[in-house]
Design goal:
Radius of gyration: 21 Å
Structural class: alpha/beta
Largest sheet: 7 strands, mixed
Number of strands: 12
Distance between the termini: 75 Å
Oligomer: single chain
Strand order of the largest sheet: 3-2-1-4-7-8-9
Number of helices: 7
CATH architecture of one domain: 3-Layer(aba) Sandwich
CATH class of one domain: Alpha Beta
Length: 303
């Protein structure tokens, strides 16, 4: 083989490697992936019996939630991820089983935290993934549908648009220039977020029958689907745009309790719109911190 032929082959091999790296989202610094995990959208979850420590099935469904996150982690690794941060974003934020997760990831746990369900993300990440998400409070087609807090809020809107938790999380990711590439949950959750963000990958693991009933995949089938969709989303991440709404943003937060709305409206820069709704204007990061404060500052707090 003469030197000229050798050089041509070398350049061709280098080009091929660069093409594959770009296709799978890998750069010189590696690919960082953020995974935000909720529980209401996990396969099989249909009631409070699975969602918290007082539920008789909670222990089992912590395992299923962890397994779905592990499926996403494994798929992200296969697609070239070199660093993964997972945000445990359901309930008390202490759901995922540490001894069942890969020991080379990082995990965000408990509350409060400024970025809510997206804590841990910044502009060094290449992609965001949502696991176990559910539909918004205003969506009658979603199993266990709510936004931020089913006990406290009946509506969360930004610039007049009814927000899902997926929409809020996507806006935070978009603030840092990070595209959401995949979501798993019930059919309403996947459809709602896809309609807002565009054609991201969606793993539908169950289908709404009522607020507390669904037809569901079995856990291993759901995990296999999540793997498939995470890999597809990361492969397409270069064509998926970060989700942004040009600011400043107007948050309209509607409480179920009128007194709660009136009290929080005593804060500067918070306006009482009606007996149940307050308005706050700011960046998505400021909105995230405001919502976290609204959720986590009870007057009886002692520590």
């Amino acid at each position: 083989m003469n030197p000229g032929t050798h050089n041509v082959l070398f350049r061709g091999l280098l080009f091929a490697l660069l093409f594959l790296a770009t296709a799978y989202g890998v750069n010189a610094a590696g690919l960082k992936v953020h995974i935000s995990a909720d529980m209401e959208g996990v396969a099989g979850v249909v009631s409070r019996d699975q969602l918290g420590p007082k539920g008789f099935e909670y222990g089992q469904f912590r395992k299923f939630m962890t397994a779905e996150v592990n499926a996403a982690i494994e798929a992200a690794r296969d697609a070239g991820a070199t660093e993964i941060v997972v945000s445990d974003s359901h309930g008390n934020g202490l759901n995922l089983l540490l001894d069942a997760l890969p020991q080379d990831i990082q995990l965000v746990r408990s509350w409060p935290r400024p970025l809510g369900m997206m804590e841990g993300i910044d502009d060094s990440f290449g992609a965001a993934i949502f696991i176990g998400y559910h539909a918004s409070a205003g969506n009658t087609d979603g199993t266990l549908a709510h936004t931020q807090s089913g006990a406290d809020f009946s509506s969360v809107k930004i610039n007049g648009i009814e927000m899902t938790e997926g929409g809020m999380s996507a806006l935070i990711a978009g603030h840092f220039g990070v595209p959401v590439v995949m979501i798993s949950g019930d059919d309403a959750a996947v459809r709602e977020v896809s309609d807002m963000l565009g054609p991201i990958e969606g793993a539908v693991v169950k289908w709404h029958s009522s607020h507390t009933s669904a037809r569901t995949l079995m856990p291993e089938a759901a995990q296999a689907l999540i793997k498939e969709k995470v890999q597809a989303g990361l492969k397409r991440r270069q064509e998926l745009e970060p989700f942004r709404i040009e600011g400043p943003l107007t948050l309209d937060l509607t409480y179920k309790n009128a007194t709660a709305a009136e009290m929080i409206a005593y804060l500067p820069n918070v306006e009482l719109i009606d007996n149940h709704t307050v308005r706050f204007v700011g960046s998505i990061i400021e909105i995230s911190m405001f919502v976290e404060m609204a959720l986590g500052y009870p007057p009886t707090m002692t520590h």
